[in-house]
Structure formats: C-alpha cells, structure tokens
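Researcher: Going back to the complex we discussed earlier. I've cleaned up the inputs and rechecked each line, so this should be the final set. Can you rerun the prediction on the complete assembly and write out the structure?
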Amino acid sequence: MRDWKKLWLTLLLLVCTGMVMTSCQSGRKEEEKTSLRIGISLYRGDDTFITNLCNILEEKAKEYEREKGIKVTLDIQDAKGSQNTQNNQVERFISLNCDVLCINLVDRMDASVIIDRAMTAGVPVVFFNRQPVEEDMNRWDQLYYVGVDAKETAVLQGEMVVDLYREHPEAIDRNGDGVVSYVMLEGETSHQDSLIRTEWSVQTLKDGGVPVEKITGGIANWERSQGSALMEQWLSEYPDTIELVISNNDDMALGAIDALERAQVSGVNIVGIDGTTQGLEALANGNLLGTVSANKENYAGAIVSLAAGSALRQALPAEYPLTDGKYYWTSQEILINKIEENQ
Ligand code: BGC
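Model: Rerun complete. Updated structure for the full complex:
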C-alpha cells in the first residue's frame, strides 16, 4: 500500500514538474520572438509575374519589420521547375530553423512531401499562386493559400471586351463581318488558372452578346517566347483573319505582340491578365488593349501577414479575411487602354 502511495506521489511530482517546464518554455519562446525567418521557394525565378510579386513581397517584409519591430529575414530560393529541388529546399529551410514557409509549388498536385515535413517540424506553410489540391490543404490547420480567384479573373477579362464591344463594336470586330475571330493563348495545363480562365473568358463574351468565333488556340505555358512562336505560326496559317488575341497572362500576350511586330501586322486587339510591369508598359504604349490586374500590394501583404501571424502563433490579421479558415483571395481590377485615345 505504502509503495502505491509513493508511486502516485512520484507520478504527480513528475507531471507537475513537466507542466511548469512546458509553461516556462513556451513563455520564453514568445518573449524571445524578436525575429522571424521565412523560407520562400519559387516554382521558377524567371517567371515575370512571380518576379513582380516577389519584389513587392520583399518590400512588404521590410514594412512589417518597421511596423512591428520584429526582424524579418527572407531566404528566397528558385526551384527552377523541379519539385525535387523544391522538396530539398524545404528540407534545408527546416534545418535552418525557419519559422514559416511560403511555397509557390512547382507541381500543385504534389504537395505531400512538403506538407509531411512541415507538419513533423511544426512549421506553418503559406502556399501561393499555385494552389494545392483540397485534400492536401485539409491535412493540417497550419496550411494557408493566397491567390486570385481564377473564374473572377476570367469573367473580368471577358467583361472588359464585352464593354468595349458595346461601346465601339467596330474597334473589336475589325473587319466588320459581324463576327469577332479570336485566338487563345493558354498557360500550363496543370495550373488551376489555365482551364478556368480559358473557359470563362469566352463564356463571358458569349453571355455578353459578343459574336465570337474561335480560329485556334494553343498552350504557351505562360511564356513570352512560346506565345510569340505560336502567334507567328497562326499569322502565317490564318493571314488577315485574327481580330482578337485572348491570353491567359500578360507575358504570352507580349509574345503575341512581338510576333505581330515582326510580321508588321497591325490592328489586332490583345488582352492579357496579371498587370505585370511589362504588361502595364504595353498597355501604356497602346500595344495591349487591356489586362486584369491582381492587386499585388494586397497579394504580397497577405502572404507576409499570414506567414508572420501563423509563425508567431498570433490571431491572423483581420485585414486579410480567410475563406474556410485557410484561403485568401486577392482583389483584381480591369485596366484598359482607352480605345478613343487610339483612334
Ligand atoms: C499568372 C501567370 C504566371 C503563373 C505562374 C498565373 O496566375 O497569371 O503569369 O506565370 O501564375 O504560376
């Protein structure tokens, strides 16, 4: 009997000591957090939109540092299109004691290795731009996603052309035959944005009463050079036919503009998506008719705030309300080159 009592007392003592130690440790951890290390991996460092976004992300991190008095160190790595490389980068971030990871997945269907590692290490992850599948996102409550709503983007792109057509049908139906003949430049097939943008921009044109007819379309993987090559081919296959180029992003639209310039063809309208620096230049000089621009301040601000908040185990910023507790959808706007100014 006396042995049982002793055993109970010893167990009680051990449990209490453990509780005191745990509370001391967590108290110390919170007190000490005067700096944050964020590991960022980009699917490709040469992607124009991602580069634009990353530049603003660096500014937002500095802004956070100034406002909160917490030192923020960003470790930015380029996965160069390899999921394996990205997985190794995550491994390294964790061994360097990063407090949080911001991941622009190479393969959005293949997030499991990264999630496993992050969960084991207890390091939250903010995915952005390339959306992991829902099943992966639901594996842990410390996984977040920041991006734009693909359908909203596409509908805005379509509406931009619908409005222009209603105001100036002759500027969209360039040859006045009652039909707007278009070609479509598409992004990577595996990207959540490509299919939805392609489908809904055209659907919105049809719903808005624009009489469209597809000449052809092709995948240019978001790239300017590939967009340019496709457009060059289409210009020779369908001479004097293309009136409108609908592009899933600005870079491929710029490629189409390059091809038109090389072929010395004018009078073709081109619409893009992203509002990249290069896209905005083309808009300003009249080469691009319009674009749908993601609010990049908001996009990058959400990534930094969510990353910092989750790393510090703080309440997440009310400024960036989450859908289903994990998704933040960035706002977007239409930017057009006024047709009147070009006439
Ligand atoms: C952007 C593209 C970019 C791609 C990269 C898309 O949302 O519109 O410009 O290349 O994301 O993942």
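Model: Worth noting: The mean pLDDT is 91.
Researcher: Good, that matches what I expected from the previous run.
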